[in-house]
Design goal:
CATH architecture of the largest domain: 3-Layer(aba) Sandwich
CATH topology of the largest domain: Rossmann fold
Number of domains: 2
Distance between the termini: 12 Å
Radius of gyration: 21 Å
Shape: elongated
CATH class of the largest domain: Alpha Beta
Length: 364
Amino acid sequence: MKILHVEGGAHLYGGAQQVLYLLQGLGGHGVESHLACRPGCDLARRAAPFARVHELPMGGDLDLGMIGRLRRLIETLRPDLVHLHSRIGADVMGGIAARLAGVPVVHTRRVDNPEPRWLVASKYRLHDRVIAISEGIARVLLAEGLPPDKLRVVRSAVVARDFQQPCERRRVLEALGLGHGGEGGELLLVGVIAQLIERKGHGVLLDAMPALIERFPRLRLVLFGKGPLAGRLQQRIDAEGLAEHVRLAGFRADLGQILPCLDLLVHPALMEGLGVSLLQASAAAVPIVASRVGGIPEAVRDGINGLLVPPGDVDALGRAVAALLADPALRRRLGAAGRALIEEEFSPGVMVEGNLAVYRELLS
């Protein structure tokens, strides 16, 4: 079986990381994988041992030239099918290119952003199968008119061992600019791992911070990730006198070392397809407070590995965070349950088998 994968993302964030896991796993099943991606992107370098990489210019949703470039690649390779992994133009341009080349198309949908029914009716006509990474996304697609016979659900995965290293707390605190954290008692280290964009809900958590800081003076909140809101968030942190307790850490390649040292992960998203950072936190045995929205309840089971709150509810979010910060035993119990959940339901092996089942079904 020969598969051409198309990923248009520039960074090795959640979706591109899932593509890497898939390419690694498919090699063990005798699949010949090819990857079309942006020149010089992180995924191109990391995927090279597992796939033949074809670097192509990908300019986003308005890059009509992508159709011709991908069509020529498809006609040269003659894959059994094309698997489109991102939006950013690849979902539409890649679908058109594969149709023109006469090759079956699979598209993975990773976000639960609503789309108008007319767009769903036209865009997904290009795809033979649509894979949703959560039941939450699947519900959105069905509500927007996607034919049920096209839809399959294959959840995202995480390599648990990458986030199960012993915590070197002093090193992590110093790396984050928090000192060693020993003066006046142990710090309570809380993280948010998400792009700095509106729908991730950082502002909701900042609204809850003054009351949390008053109750937990040793609280330190670290926002991991990049995005267009970085400047506005920093301005707000400075203007509201939160700089001692809240800091932006940007994108970190060493989350495998940082996560085991967090006391709590908070994910106050207003919309979310599933949330790979939630899987990573659970793999590290870190308890979670998150919004009950989209596919999050599939990754965070309320009262099992974390607590769920209504999206945008500042008071409910603050109460849930406070409940866990005040109860170390509860944090340990939820963290242990999260690690077990990842091993049972979110392993790369399960994800690879799910994608393979879609390929085999379509090609048969």
